[in-house]
Structure formats: C-alpha cells, structure tokens
C-alpha cells in the first residue's frame, strides 16, 4: 500500500480539512472528535475442519458515542488492519451524524480470507469473535452490521451467539442486517445500493452536474459487483441508466453493444462462473482501464484507496458516486475538484445501509416489521434530505469562496457539517464530570 492510499492518513486528512472550515472549534474538542473512544484487538484460536488450529486476529473500534450506541459493520478480509478499522469507524460517526441517525460510529472485523474458508470455519470464527467481544457489543452500546465479505448469515451467527450469552431478553437489536425471518428489515439487503442511486438521482435533479439532470440514459461504470455494486446496477437500470462496465476481484468488462450490459445475463454468468469476466459480447479490461472508461457516472463500490493521484487525472466521468468507503484519496479529491468533476462522498452516498440498519433496530426494539414500501419511502426521504442539505452547504461554501484558493468539494462540506453537529451535541451534553 502506498502512503497516499493509507486509510488512516486519508481519514485524518479528511478530518483536518473539515476542521479548517470550523475555526471556532476548540483544540480539546477537535482531539476528542478525532480519536477513537475505544479500541479492542483480540487474538483467538479456531479449530479448522481438518482438525488443525489457527489463530485469528479480530478488531472492534468504537470511534464516538456522542449521538448514541456505536454502529458499524464487521469486515472479513485478509489484509484488514487496525488503522483501516479506526478510519472506517470514524466515517461511521460522520455518516450517522449527517443522516440524522441516533448512533455513534464503530467498525470491526477479523483478519481472514473468507474465500478460502469453509462455512463451518466462518461460523466458528464469528462465534468466537463475538464471545471475545463479550459485553462490548450490545443493543444499546455497540450494534454491528455486515460489511465486506460478511452477510445475513454472519449476522445470524452474531445474533445467535450473543443471544446464548444473554438469555431471557429481546436481543434482536444487538445486530442489524440479519435474515428476514430473524428480525431483519425488509429492504436492508438492497438499502446501500438503492440509497446510492437515490442520492445520485437527487444530486442530478438539483442541477449539481452541468448537462446531466437525470439518470435516464446516463452511462454508468461500477467497480465491484458485490452487494452494494450489484444492487446499485439493478437500481440504476430501473431508473433508465445504462450500466456499461463492471468489475469484481478477478477483473472488469466493458459493454460492446452501446446499449448497456444485459444485467440478467451478467448475474447469471457471475453465478455460474464466479466472475463477471468472460460475459459474451464484452471486452475484458483491467482495474485501471475500467476506472478510466468514458461514462457519465463512476461508482467505485469495492475497496478503499482505488482512485488516487496517478489515475484521477485520467478519469473520463462527469460524476463520481462513492459506493465503497474511502475509495478516493485526498489528492484525488483535489484533482477532481480542479477538473470540476463532483464527488458524492461515501458518508452521503452509501448511508442507505446504516439508515435501514437503524430502521431494523427500531423495528426490533418495537417487535414489529414494517412493510418494504414503508422502508423504501423512509429511505428515499432521508437520502434526499441529506443530499439536499449537503448540496446547499457545498454551494454556500463555494459561494463565499472568493477567498479560498481551491474549490471546496462535497466531502469537505459534508464532513464539516457532521463534525460541527457532533461538537455542538458534545457541548450540549457537557464534558463529564
Ligand atoms: P461485498 O463483499 O458484497 O462485495 C465486494 C465486491 O468487490 C466483490 O464483488 C468483489 O469481487 C469486489 N472486489 C474486491 N476487490 C476488488 C478489486 N480489486 N477490484 C474490483 N472489484 C473488487 O461487499 P459490499 O458489502 O458490496 O461492500 C463494498 C464496499 O461498500 C465496501 O467498501 C464497504 O465498506 C462499502 N459499504 C457497504 C455497505 C453495505 O451495506 N454492505 C454499506 C456502506 C458501505
């Protein structure tokens, strides 16, 4: 990993840039909003299906709990680092604040390669990880959710393990993103991808991208066809957009027809071969060529640090919508701002997942299940509102930006808004004791 794409550096710079816009913030408050509240590292043994024993490392970080319990996903990835988990927890703090969700920010994960593990091994890793966290997670302290390479099944194991440890009470709100028949919310699986498309749609309607006011016929390239990217592809198509390029960890493809990819054929191909690569009628490209393909909207929906100072000058898009967390470096932000390519940042665009996670938590606390239409309607309302508020702030900041040497991007507008809100609430609550 190059220094530029180091997740901790990216998130510290994002914070520092936001704070520059808030000159009244006192030093101690800045430090408090910067640092993680609690960091857990745990090493634990797991017996594999062949009888051998391996030791795994798990993390859980609560960044801030000023607005409510910690909230954030659990990621399984072989290159997961504590720095990355801290940075992702920080993003969650800002995301919850921006979307008006009464949660703080958290994140966790286990360093493992889920692709090489049996289901029984993943179950044991998950159960042991949850046991190691003990009462550090809970319905009113820290509420996990899915993230990369964890899913509804993983969340069911998290719930079951916690429930065994805490019998005799309603433990459903301890984790979100659960299967539907285990207290999951209708619409949760699709929430992040759907939210991305809602955010893009509203942003275009607000006239933020000159010459592009609707998704109809817009060409879209998506990096990462997992939960987020896959659902976003379907939702973009439902809005009349053409998905012309996609990728996964094995490579990318670009449409050869000009009409956009046949999504039914694409998902069937991925299901049968394990990858998007090789779909008939498409051209195989590498990661860089996919990101640099000409399109109206580029959606990085895989890993962090994918767009940086080397490739940002070569992007041929009119709008970047961040599906993944932290896919752009601050240097890429600057380059795109100078090139007048707006970026709808992660904390705005991919907030649909945590919004519906919050709806799931509310339903679990009330022992209720809302109809899917109600979930979608609430999601739409909240996504639109966040996009409107941040776009307004972005315009206002740039309007009085005569004294600024560079345009202020959407990320700075959004992050500074979240940090200002967090500082206000911190002072309202008062520093204890
Ligand atoms: P996922 O595991 O379902 O999918 C990840 C996809 O990325 C897979 O298709 C994988 O093949 C692909 N990928 C991995 N490495 C790649 C590479 N180098 N190039 C191209 N593709 C690559 O994960 P997800 O839940 O879709 O999450 C994707 C991103 O969105 C992550 O950054 C995650 O933090 C973020 N996110 C997820 C949610 C959610 O609700 N799932 C919410 C907010 C943000």
Feature tags:
single chain, Rossmann fold, seven-stranded mixed sheet, alpha/beta, 433 residues, binds nicotinamide-adenine-dinucleotide, 14 helices, 12 strands
In short:
With 433 residues, this protein is α/β, with parallel strands linked by helices. Helices cover 44% and strands 16% of the residues. Strands 9-8-7-6-10-11-12 form a 7-stranded mixed β-sheet. Strands 1-2-4-3-5 form a 5-stranded mixed β-sheet.
Which helices and strands occur, and which strands form pairs?
Blueprint: H1 7-20, H2 27-34, E1 38-47, E2 53-64, E3 70-76, H3 82-98, E4 105-111, H4 119-133, E5 142-146, H5 152-165, H6 188-205, E6 219-223, H7 227-238, E7 242-248, E8 251-255, H8 263-273, E9 282-285, H9 287-291, E10 297-300, E11 319-321, H10 330-338, E12 343-344, H11 346-349, H12 352-366, H13 372-399, H14 410-429
Parallel strand pairs: 3-4, 3-5, 6-7, 6-10, 10-11, 11-12
Antiparallel strand pairs: 1-2, 2-4, 7-8, 8-9
Helix pairs in contact: 1-3, 1-14, 3-14, 4-5, 6-7, 6-12, 6-13, 12-13, 13-14
The structure holds nicotinamide-adenine-dinucleotide (NAD).
Q: What features would you describe in this structure?
A:
Among the domains are: about 35-170, Leucine Dehydrogenase, chain A, domain 1 (Rossmann fold, 3-Layer(aba) Sandwich), CATH 3.40.50; about 190-350, Rossmann fold, CATH 3.40.50. It is α/β, with parallel strands linked by helices. α4 packs across α5 (about 150-165) and α6 (about 190-205) packs across α7. It is built from 14 helices and 12 strands. It has helices at about 5-20, 25-35, 80-100, 120-135, 150-165, 190-205, 225-240, 265-275, 285-290, 330-340, 345-350, 350-365, 370-400, 410-430, and strands at about 40-45, 55-65, 70-75, 105-110, 140-145, 220-225, 240-250, 250-255, 280-285, 295-300, 320, 345. The longest helix is centred in the C-terminal third of the chain and has 28 residues, at about 370-400.
